[in-house]
């Protein structure tokens, strides 16, 4: 089995109707595994890597093979991954410094590539010619023909390669499961493909065991989605390049249909080995050393809407998954799923008809049924394949670019006065995790999913009170609720019910766009596609695992970089050679690391999105962010923990992060050193700094009698940090951590604070002070008192002498927005409840900022 990847009033700060995270305790999950699926065959075997490593040990060989030393191999790997052209590589190798100092085992590009070509390879590409016969006649009265090249790999070899990856040994899942939130088994959980109904219902046990390029990718549903997304893991493999013919041999009336036929012909050739393997099974060696009887099935096909229509043999004015009429797609009417068998029978009847009235009648029947006249779809012989249910939700094109940007934004803009929506985006308050559209949204030249996600974060706030009809805000909020809920990496029966409620609420309020002349109907394919999300999630797992945004990332390496490395003539052949060499280098690098004991396992899920989010900020906001290099767990003042003498580096700190406690980071070196109390009073807005710190020190001394901190005087000097970052654990293991930055930076003051930017940034935070409700605070300073001893950053709530503290400005409290009546601290999940009682905690949802 594999995936082929091809009337409520809106609250002022965008608080949503539903919590944006699944809050059930992870340790209470109950998992029922399929009793027989994925069972291995008798015997334990060595993987190819284990065999090779044992042979090298017996012969006392080193793992870098043809390369004389490890350094020699690392130099070769650098040349392959650097993007240098062959000419530049040759020039580098001819330099005297390279020959005399580096002394590689290869002296020119020919010897270099000869060594690279000796590395172990994965599945090899082959080229086949596809002949297209058109309906245009040549000068001899013969039908013109066109030949195109189809580059392909054997899908069974690709599957075997993925199953055998030792680096994914702890990741592969061979059994479908049913996951529940508790012992009562009343609420299902849907996340990965193996938690959905499709894999379970297919009953694997009945099988006896367990200058264009059109790239087609293949991956396994057995691999966690977090791994499939990472190009460096090589868990998604390029299956082939489909040709894109000119079709000059076809008339204008037949070109489109012929193009569809060529697509299906090439796809059928790509996948034909799966027909027999899916029916009879094939024995493959897995990376755990066990052999299994594998039945590769086409489970999920990820594509945008036009390609979905091509795959399903459906015109673009119809639903590719259901039979609903073209004029009935604007509501919540039930959309009965298409039947592959009935579709193939209708196409078979057409193929048996000769030209004449009978054929015209069959064509009319196909048109009324919403079927294109592609006689032989590629999926017709694939076992256990329902191509219509296999078409996955497309979050990027259907939600971000489609329903939101192409439709909702346009509708709301038309309901406002000219330029009003732009002005509202420009006037939005600045926040470190939100993009500030300083010039509005109409000046954005290139739209990607990143810009649209940034708009979604503040869109409802921009629309609020922009019109006189509250239904506009209700409709916008409900659609955005749907978008955020649809992106959850883990669903339960409750979140699916909320997904349905959000869609129903939009349809209850959508009439406002009809009454104001913005729309005449809602027969929009991408809007209609939302009705299928819930069923796809229950069948195949959460929709974020099938987002077409991730295959588009693979295009960079598998298509664009390969083309750039070619001489632009006969480029497909050169692209294939380049890709095979790149894969060989990566494979050999992974093997060396594994052989030497530094096994390349799954990339750590402890990731932050600092770099990605920073790109979305304007220049002034970027100036407020500093490189961080220290991480500490938040702890209560009475824990008695002492700060380490020296702060560890960032990598070591990241390695200590866990999924139960909120931690934080600050810069290794404070940007503003030896800042006087007077400067902090005037420019940071903290008139009561001395009294606040001394009050805190007094409380600290009561909690920790063994600590004897000294009170500060008005003549002390402080080191000041511009920002601190909270590292909030995700709701589930395997998901990336979320970084929430808090800035406290005034504007530049000549002669006093010359290194700051032209804008000030004082972010509002929520301080948890049980048992009272959380109160908003304006962050005003991140301080560190210099001392002769090596000072360290703050340790949660308990900074000692020489450590930093986040101080609040009580004068600024009145300027903060009061959210205490609308925020429930219990909705923030484990990260909030595990933070200390007096710590700084975040009360917004991490998914909303991360996705």
UniProtKB/TrEMBL annotation:
Start and end residues of each stretch annotated as Disordered: 616-648, 767-851
Protein name: Uncharacterized protein
InterPro entries: Plavaka
Biased composition (Polar residues): 817-841
Species for this entry: Tulasnella calospora MUT 4182
Pfam families for this protein: Plavaka
Taxonomy, superkingdom: Eukaryota
Biased composition (Acidic residues): 639-648
